[in-house]
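TA notes, week 10

Several of you asked for a full example with nothing omitted. So below is the full record: structure tokens for the whole chain, then the designed sequence directly under it. When grading your own attempts, check the secondary structure regions first.
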């Protein structure tokens, strides 16, 4: 095989297939992940090919899924748990924060928890309550967890394999509104050649302002940068990719060159990732900044009904407005 054009969802499916083929200790578990292939068909065909002992349909009990996975991880397996929708993860939150994140520390480093918790997150699909939330800050705030999110098919394919191969517990956030977007995926390269998992990446070079995003907002920011270029303004877009640990080396380098920084995410602004990033950029790049670090986020309300979600979600116009405000200082 060579480079193929895949949707982000198919890239995840192919990456999971490779992980199952590579290591017999990898198991996938979750609600409807087997026979149905998952609500978004991310695990489609895997139970048929690998059997119901490795791709396991579980009861509708998120706490039970994660608790069982902790036991499997302690015994040497590499469980990959699927939470159907972002807003369904909260029944498992105690297990994740009290057990998954703490076990390695509690055992003084003797016990590893090599597990992945896949969570489709974010809005933009016209869904009902508890189906469009962005809970990343809860997990990024929790010591002992690593949190990553892909934004395109190439990253989806490699990052899911890297997460499964990691000895640390990883919350893997999948931007559900981007599941059907297509892009090239190099299926031939070895895993060792993939871009490092916990590393940010510049996805569009620019000289006038730095725009930071992750997950579903990367595409929005690339569209904003393309629109800004028509007016002669070159925006540099950085895909953070990893939310815990944050990799800000490329961010600092970019901000020192451009002098302006805008952070974009779907989650509410209050105590969101944007606040932490703004603080760190200000601390490290204070004398390079021509304007305060600005944020474009969801509003500080529960996620709204689908008929008005487009008013809630950051869009191209809101990003460009923030860039304009940065140039107004």
């Amino acid at each position: 095989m060579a480079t193929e054009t895949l949707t982000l969802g198919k890239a995840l499916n192919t990456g999971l297939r490779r992980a199952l083929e590579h290591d017999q200790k990898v198991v996938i578990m979750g609600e409807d992940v087997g026979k149905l292939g998952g609500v978004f068909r991310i695990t489609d065909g895997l139970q048929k090919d690998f059997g119901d002992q490795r791709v396991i349909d579980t009861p509708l009990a998120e706490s039970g899924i994660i608790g069982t996975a902790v036991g499997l991880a302690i015994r040497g397996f590499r469980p990959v748990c699927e939470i159907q929708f972002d807003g369904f993860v909260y029944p498992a939150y105690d297990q994740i924060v009290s057990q998954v994140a703490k076990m390695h520390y509690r055992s003084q480093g003797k016990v590893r928890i090599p597990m992945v918790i896949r969570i489709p997150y974010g809005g933009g699909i016209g869904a009902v309550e508890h189906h469009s939330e962005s809970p990343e800050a809860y997990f990024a705030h929790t010591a002992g967890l690593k949190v990553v999110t892909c934004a395109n098919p190439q990253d989806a394919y490699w990052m899911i394999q890297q997460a499964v191969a990691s000895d640390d517990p990883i919350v893997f956030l999948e931007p559900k509104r981007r599941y059907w977007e297509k892009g090239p995926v190099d299926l031939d390269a070895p895993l060792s050649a993939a871009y490092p998992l916990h590393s940010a990446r510049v996805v569009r070079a620019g000289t006038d302002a730095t725009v930071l995003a992750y997950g579903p907002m990367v595409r929005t920011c690339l569209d904003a940068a393309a629109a800004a270029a028509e007016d002669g303004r070159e925006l540099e877009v950085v895909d953070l990719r990893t939310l815990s640990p944050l990799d800000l080396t490329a961010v600092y380098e970019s901000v020192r060159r451009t002098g302006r920084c805008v952070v974009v995410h779907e989650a509410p602004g209050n105590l969101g990732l944007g606040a932490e990033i703004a603080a760190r950029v200000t601390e490290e790049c204070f004398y390079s900044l021509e304007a305060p670090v600005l944020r474009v986020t969801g509003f500080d309300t529960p996620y709204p009904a689908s008929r008005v979600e487009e008013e809630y979600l950051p869009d191209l116009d809101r990003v460009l407005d923030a860039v304009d405000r940065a140039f107004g200082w």
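The chain has a mean pLDDT of 97. Use that as a sanity check on your answer.
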